[in-house]
Amino acid sequence: MALLKRFLPNNQRLTITTQLQFLHVLQRMLSRGLTLVHSLDAMKYYGELEHISKQVLSNLEAGKQLDEAMDQAGFHHSIVSYLFVVREKADIYERIEHCYQLFQQRVHYIRKFQQTVRYPLILMIIFSGLLFFIYSRVIPSFQQLMFGELPMLLQTVIFLSAWLGYSLLILLVFSTLVVLVWLFSRNNISLETKLSIYKRVPLYRSYVKRQTSFHFAALYSSLLQTGMPMKELLNYMSRQTKLPIISYYAKQMQLEYFKGRTIHGLLTTMEFLESHLTDILSSNMDAKSLAKDLAIYADISIDTMYQRLQKSIVYIQPVFFSIIGAFIILIYVSLMSPMFELMNTM
Length: 346
Fold this sequence. Notes:
Blueprint: H1 2-7, H2 16-31, H3 36-42, H4 50-61, H5 66-72, H6 77-85, H7 92-145, H8 152-185, H9 191-199, H10 202-225, H11 230-239, H12 244-258, H13 264-267, H14 275-282, H15 287-345
Helix pairs in contact: 2-7, 4-5, 5-6, 6-7, 6-10, 7-15, 8-15, 10-15, 11-12, 14-15
Subcellular location: Cell membrane
Main location: membrane
Keywords: Cell membrane, Membrane, Transmembrane, Transmembrane helix
């Protein structure tokens, strides 16, 4: 049963639509000058949000922070992580507004990706089934009519198709096994080992690097704006558990400060922080200027990340349709080649 629970979806998790609606309504309530508590209390009049708002409000009244309250209510980890990062900001409306905008942007690109991939993927599945039917049923019939001899072109096509099919099947099985092993063992793997694994997966490495840089800059900037001393700031960052990579890096920075060294050399070894961010952190500027630069960097980095994602989505359809075109050519050659050969022998 314990194993089953690890793979079954959490029933407490909210739908994307519900989370977006909750953030939108909460943002609107706060924009009218209501406090967070009054806003959550007023949300009980939204039938589908009543239970969620009561749960969040109950957690807040129990002394929990907003990010902790929303985490227990089943909100997406990206919402919880961002609210934790900006926890020290005084303006609650600004926090919720920015969180809503970021999550809305995330949902927009996820849905755009799904729409882009959906129909080409359906077509690929249909053509794959059609190609399998031709090779398993139609081609053997032609082979019997032609006394076991198939045209060289068709033999080549069959060989390439079989090779491609088995390669994709092996890749699918291997990927499934890797995912299952990761789900089983990820909680027992040390952070250093995880970082080593991330470095070997190019696309995921880039994603983790951008996310870590964004969260690091936003959290560092938010804490600097409170006037927190550097020693206390790094201690706070190292003790938090929601962003383990940032906690790991903060501990390393703490050690350097305790040894009386500068962090310039250390920052260059932090592979999951972008070079632009490390340049800002290495600059000798006052806390106020540093907080401002980090806040600007955080805004730019998240915009850049979504722009790159949009560019990637643009290339997906042409790739899928090229593969579908290859399927059509294979089907045409597989059907027409033996027919022409059969006509020549008549």
